[in-house]
Design goal:
By secondary structure, the protein is an all-alpha fold. The chain has helices at 7-32, 38-72. It is built from 2 helices and no strands. It is elongated. 11% of the residues are buried.
Amino acid sequence: MVSKKYLHQVQALLLSGFMSFIMSGAITFINLGFVDNFFSIWMHAGIIAYMIAFPTILLVFPIARKLAMMIASR
């Protein structure tokens, strides 16, 4: 298990993984349809998306949290 002090990083790791692979799969399917090598194309796109998504979430998450708290506190 990981210490609770790393909760933010673990959340970013999981969220970026889920979102990047789900979205890359959806966009790959929309653009190409279900082609013969769909899975390998999807995984390639997913890995690239994940490499972008993880550091982006680490940077954007604190800002999004503050904005969400401002919106929800009204």
